[in-house]
Amino acid sequence: MTTVHQACYEILREQGLTTFFGNPGSNELPFLKDFPADFRYILGLQEAAVVGMADGFAQATGRPGFVNLHSAAGTGNAMGALANAWNSHTPLVVTAGQQVRSMVGVEALLANVDAATLPRPLVKWSCEPASAQEVPLALSRAIHMAATPAAGPVYVSVPYDDWAKEAGPGVEHLAKRRVETAGLPSPQRLASLKESLEQARNPLLIVGPDVDACGANGLAVALAEKLSMPVWMAPSAPRCSFPTTHPCFRGLLPAGIASISRLLEGHDLVLVVGAPVFRYHQYEPGDYLPAGTHLIAITCDVNEAARAPMGDAIIADIGLTLRALSENVSQTLRPLPAALRRPEPAPEQPGPLTPERVFDILDEMAPRDAIYVNESTSTTNILWERLRMTEPGSYYFAAAGGLGFALPAAVGIQLAKPERRVIGVIGDGSANYSIQALWTAAQYNIPTIFIIMKNGTYGALRWFAGVLQVENVPGLDVPGLDFCALARGYGVDALHVDSSETLAAALKQALAGNKPVLIEVETCTTR
Ligand code: TZD
Ligand code: CA
Questions:
Q1: Which H helix or E strand runs over 497?
Q2: Other C-beta atoms within 10 Å of 107: how many?
Q3: Does residue 209 lie in a domain region?
Q4: How many CB atoms lie within 10 A of CB 39?
Q5: Is residue 275 part of a domain?
Q6: Which of 86, 161, 231, 465 is most buried, with most CB under 10 Å away?
Q7: What lines the ligand 1 site, CB under 6 Å?
Q8: CA distance 161 to 113
Q9: Rounded distance between C-alpha atoms, residue 248 and residue 265, angstroms
Q10: What is the DSSP letter of 117?
Q11: Total domain count for the chain?
């Protein structure tokens, strides 16, 4: 007889989900029993860290990640991380153990009451199968739901007495199924898009995270060069989809309605690819678009397309559409935009390091293909100005703005990309939300470098308090934290630095080694 357990492991194996990120409980033990040798289990000590690591891993591999959580409590701890995964279109198959079927109704300890509702609305699909026989189908469906565009997290709750039951007839069809999408706009629509782009007097390109997610950065470059378009990164960028050293690159768009509109002035056509229109943040009322500007968005996400407050949208495969456009659009006679001037090297100052100085040193010393995972909120603009990022997959940031992403994601991304060095740049506030991922980095020898920007405060909130003109707000400082002690407590080597020389020396040492290192840097607040 084939058990539900055997059938599900066969599905996971054939579909390539052999790395589990989890934190187990009694409900999950029957699922994890006789763990096969061709699978690996990455233990995280708290569910925010578990999902953060899986999110980074799945984004960096471009394949569905697999998560196993403990019932309602484990799922609850993971919800903030699910908000980020939902917004970044991360394909994640999240499973949770349920009490035995016959004890859910009496609400025995660790029953997940109304399990399928719990993770909504932060999942694409959620279910607790109606019978043990339906568990393999639910898992198979979850994998394909998570992976197809727009990708996203899904959730399956499984009562723990299901695993030993006999799988239903026909279960053998599931493991090898392939589900594909084919999403090029029609030839007519492509032709009209090509014509609009060619006839525009001053077109502009805005690229978003899904360009990087499908590795189409080079196609965006080709299209920008054909039309000599200035290129902006969509606001609140969770990834870097265009080489920041390219002459067409203009930088990271601000996240206010009026500021964006001002920057788009004079452009008759704005093409947005792979981003919501737009992920605004601070409220800055104004017109969404300047007069005379037409906007067309190409997105893989029907929600993004439908909810945009302006412009037209085409729901299509980003990579295929960019390829078709970049190959078919004719070369313009307009010259390429002049490259932005690189900022002047930040001057040396007494006292704590300026963030500018930290990024200059990082940019000089890190390998050119380093991967940056940023959660140093008040220094994000400085990072974008000073770090040269040229390779696809070089930058990650929490897509919903939920803190606790970067530290574990940096561990998951490093696990996915052993050939590149991952550097987390993390604020002394942000580092606390899922710091337990340090333990995973140490135990599995995942050589992420964690740079903690220690300015003693929630810098971004101080800036925001200024924007909102609110004074005397409590709870904005975080003194008295010792990240070197925390890191060592979790088994990670740590170095404290307070000058350019000590930072450079620490980075040199960390980069030369092949193990995780945390560098705590004394920094001053920006502006
Ligand atoms: N909690 C969670 C889960 N997500 C959030 N975004 C916040 C709280 C609010 N928040 C921000 O949006 S930025 C920020 C907080 C607390 C300050 C982060 O401080 P930091 O970085 O030390 O990491 P800076 O550079 O000092 O701002
Ligand atoms: Ca801080």
A1: strand 493-497
A2: 11
A3: yes
A4: 15
A5: yes
A6: 231
A7: 80, 376-379, 401-404, 427-430, 433, 455, 457-461
A8: 16
A9: 17
A10: T
A11: 3
Question: Token pair 């350019």 is at which residue?
Answer: 500
Ligand 1 atom at minimal distance to the Cα of residue 80: 3
Q: Which residues, 6 or more positions from 502, have their beta carbon under 8 angstroms from its beta carbon?
A: 495
Pairing of strands 204-207, 269-273: parallel
One-letter amino acid at 524 equals C
The last residue of one of the domains, among 151, 173, 195, is 173
Both 261 and 382 in one domain: the answer is no
Same domain assignment for residues 160 and 196 = no
Peptide bond into 150 cis (omega under 30): yes
CA nearest ligand 1 atom 21, residue? 427
CATH number at residue 36: 3.40.50.970
List, in order, residues 6 or more apart from 213 with CB less than 8 Å away: 59, 62, 89, 151, 239, 274
261: domain CATH number is 3.40.50.1220
Length, in residues, of the chain: 527
The predicted-structure confidence for 188-208, as pLDDT tens digits, reads as follows 999 999 999 999 999 999 999
- At 527, is the pLDDT very low, low, confident or very high (cuts 50, 70, 90)? low
Q: Which atom of ligand 1 is nearest to the CA of 402?
A: 4
Together in a domain, 227 and 275 = yes
Please indicate, yes or no, whether residues 315 and 277 belong to a single structural domain of this protein: yes
User: Would you say residue 333 lies in a domain?
Assistant: no
Going from the Cα of 263 to the center of ligand 1, the distance in angstroms, rounded, reads: 27
Task: Give the whole-angstrom CA distance, residue 255 versus residue 239.
Answer: 15
How sure is the predictor about 525, in pLDDT bands with cuts at 50, 70 and 90?
confident
Tokens of 331: 């070369």
Regarding whether 510 and 462 lie in a shared domain, the answer is yes
Nearest residue to 118 via CA among 155, 160, 158: 155
Domain presence at residue 348: no
- Ion ligand 2: residues, Cβ under 5 Å: 427-429, 455, 459
H or E segment to which residue 326 belongs: helix 318-328
Show which residues are catalytic.
25-26, 28, 47, 70, 281, 401
Same domain, residue pair 300 and 382: no
Q: Which domain holds residue 136?
A: 4-173
pLDDT tens per residue across span 137-175: 999 999 999 999 999 999 999 999 999 999 999 999 999
Question: Does residue 278 share a domain with residue 166?
Answer: no
Q: Which of 143, 173, 203 is the last residue of a domain?
A: 173
* CA 428 to ligand 1: nearest atom: 22
Query: How far is Cα 225 from Cα 242, in angstroms, rounded to an integer?
Result: 12
What's the CA gap between 445 and 525, in Å, rounded?
A: 33
